[in-house]
Amino acid sequence: MLKSKSKFRSLFIALSILIGTSGCAELFDANSSQTINNQTIDKKATIQGGVFDAVTGARIGGNDLKMTLVAGTSDRSPSKLNKDTNSDLMGEYAFSDVPVNVDGGNITFKMVITNTGYQRFEGTVTYNVAEGEIGGGTTTDATINLIRDVYLFPLGVTAPDIEVAVEYDGEPVPGATVVLQQNATGNSATAETSATRLFATTGLLPTLTATTDAAGKVTFAGSTLVLGGAYTPVVLPIKHEGTQLARNILAGIVAGTSTNPILATMADTSPGAQDDGIFVVFASNRDVDDITGLTNPGVLTLVFNRAVALNNATGNPFTATLVNAGAALLNGAGTATSVAGVLSADGLTLTLTPQFTTAPIATDINLDVVFAGGQLTVAGDEGAQASAVFGLTYLDGVIISGTVNVTGPGA
């Protein structure tokens, strides 16, 4: 018999278990009309592995251990099932000569495992058909082997607590709503934690909701969880210290096997937001065609999404420079001069006003004031990182401009 790399690769074909809640997924297609390459006719599959206690890791055997593979209209008993409690190979099983359809679609069978004192294992076993694995005309072996160990959860054992820690920018987020919902696909709970370790639990799982404490953490008591149940933690959107955080859907977990605590790192909803989530919601110069005119020439107003404080200890003050200066002077034409930034009482609005020694006149055509420098931090947070004002962005991620048009081309 010819050998190919596919023979060995097939040992590691992905196998997934989906737990049925109102019936299993469709089994294999028995009515395919596709033409099958003669190299792939009469394929047989073997599913083998061991049965283990999901809590202790011990092998499971005994006369009450039963396994059934449902393939189409046939209920198959294992070709091998070692129930001998004195054997080093207790719990080893194998289903051999399982027919495999190789017309290009995935092949799915139902597996049921029961044993006294353990949760019923009932789900579906799916072969993922791929080029060079089962179909595609490149496989020459007539038998495909899959090695998978099955883990059963004992009855009457409480799952350990699950802790979720919610953070944004390295800081805890209190008051966030965390939902622990069934990890579901088409009314079935996905219960697989790796390619070789299979877990299952039957039935719909209740959705649990809790709110993070002052430390940004929430704990779901093991007594409220289904041991072996597959869950998806979801952190709902929340406005944290003025920053709108987006919903965060975390990776699926299995109660009893997942590592605690689970960290949920939140992201803000505004692209381009700076450290600490500061961005600009309004700028008086956003429209480049707007002019300030001669009454309040060159004044720039910025409104932030959260309260800020000016960082005056950086040695990086605000400055203003004139472009296309005619009669107007700022302590000397074109020379960068210091400007005092003025914050509103609520810390949300910054106003920059250039100090003209000679005011602009109507004949100053296309006169611009260009602001630069200046840094700010989140108000009340002494450890917050300083952000350059003119490196901030609008909500849409566009970097703000420091240029203010005083007079238009026709002034």
Would you mind describing this structure in some detail?
By secondary structure, the protein is mainly β. It has three domains: about 5-150, Carboxypeptidase-like, regulatory domain (Immunoglobulin-like, Sandwich), CATH 2.60.40.1120; about 160-185 and about 200-265, Carboxypeptidase-like, regulatory domain (Immunoglobulin-like), CATH 2.60.40; about 275-405. The protein is built from one helix and 34 strands. It has one helix at about 5-10, and strands spanning about 15-20, 45-55, 65-70, 75, 80, 90-100, 105-115, 120-125, 145, 150, 160-170, 170, 175-180, 190, 195-200, 210, 215-220, 230-235, 240, 245, 250, 255, 260-265, 280-285, 300-305, 310, 320-325, 335-340, 340-345, 350, 370, 375-380, 385-390, 405. The strands form eight sheets. A six-stranded antiparallel β-sheet has the order 4-3-7-8-1-14, with no helix packed on it. Strands 2, 5, 6, 9, 10 and 15 form a six-stranded mixed β-sheet that branches. A hairpin with a 2-residue loop joins strand 19 (about 240) and strand 20 (about 245). The protein is elongated. Residues about 1-40, about 130-140 and about 185-195 have low confidence and may be disordered.
